[in-house]
Predict the 3D structure of the following.
Amino acid sequence: MKKGIHPAYADATITCVCGNVINTKSTKKDIKVEICSNCHPFVTGKQKIIDTAGRVESFKKKYAGINKTNKK
């Protein structure tokens, strides 16, 4: 490797909006994120469906009559 062309790789702190702090190494010293592994909806199971103009209800209404057991 050539000397002097690579960025410094040092200790870094990743801070989430929820308050979780992760210590790691990076080329940046401080990193601020909005979602981390502790507060991500997929991990926590607290997913919210954002309904835009009644699309979720429209979908449920459209496919409410379909029965999975009546396959031919």
Notes: The chain has a mean pLDDT of 80. The chain is about 15% helix and 25% strand.
